[in-house]
Amino acid sequence: MHSLQLLLVASQALSCGAHMFLAYPPALRASTNPFSKGNTDPDITSPLKGSSDYPCKGSLSLLGTSQASSVAEWTAGESYNMTIQGGAPHGGGSCQASISTDQGKTFTVIHSFIGDCPGPEQQSSSFSFRLPGDTPASKDAIFGWTWFNKIGNREMYMNCAVVSISAGSGSEKVAFGDRPAPFVANINGCRTVDSEDVLIPNPGPDVDSMNTEAVAPTGDCEKAASPPFVGGPSSSSGSDSSDSSETSRAPVATSAISEPSETSDGDSGPVVPSSAATSELGGSATEGVEPTSAAGLPPSQTSSGDWTPGNDWPAGFSNARHAAAMNLVLLLAGVFAVFLV
């Protein structure tokens, strides 16, 4: 029983540390939010259960209470960042940052991150974005973070934080009201592809694309046309990359053996060995002296009984044996000469 209790405690600890959540700006009911007052969500790192807790994982019920006080003061047209923390980044994925100025009834995308969001192997990663200059002012605007993980079950995550937004100046190429709503998948008829960064169909004008090979979702997904990109990867850069990959290839290695050189008559023939030919023993032959075989005989005579007197020896000739016979003949001749005298 004691072992079972320890196992349950360990599994609960792992579940609390799993997945990811919006650490900054501090999400509603997050442990990093100073206004949570103990009313934290133990499952804040878990994915959405479905359309029932979309948007904001059901935390919008806190609006109007002290627990939903603003945690950051922003000005339209300025740049800010969001920080994602947790124990399981699931290989990264794609994220979106959005703003609601009507108590969460609608959300407007202000930036999309395609691939590597959050960092594939990081327990904490930050992403910068620019709040559009024409974002409506609001004392209790809602900042939303949505995430579609790359590896694991097909899920959707969302946390929200309350921020104050002051009016900015200047117009945008794409008006705030013309920006898209956040992409929604895996809790409806649209589904992201397993082990792939999702290519969000309508990411809006401000996009950081870390994966140019992201894959579009399948099923009944958003078909609306995307506003023009600003700073996204262009098709020309892709072609340049392709060209550079071709030119950067290493040259093919050539053979270490030279091709036959061309002769004076224009015909190609084999390379002729030099006059310093080597013998069967591997030694260099001296000019004018024919190399000998291992048997001490000229190579040209090793298979023939003929020989040239005064130059080489016939096959099978042993100078030691023949010298002994010659000595015996001379000895007998000397003895015979003595008897004659």
TrEMBL record:
Keywords assigned by UniProt, alphabetized: Membrane, Signal, Transmembrane, Transmembrane helix
Top-level taxon of the source organism: Eukaryota
Region (Disordered): 196-311
Signal peptide as annotated in the record: 1-18
Low complexity: bias regions: 226-245
Entry-linked PANTHER family: PROTEIN, PUTATIVE (AFU_ORTHOLOGUE AFUA_6G10930)-RELATED
Official protein name in the record: Extracellular protein
Organism annotation: Pleurostoma richardsiae
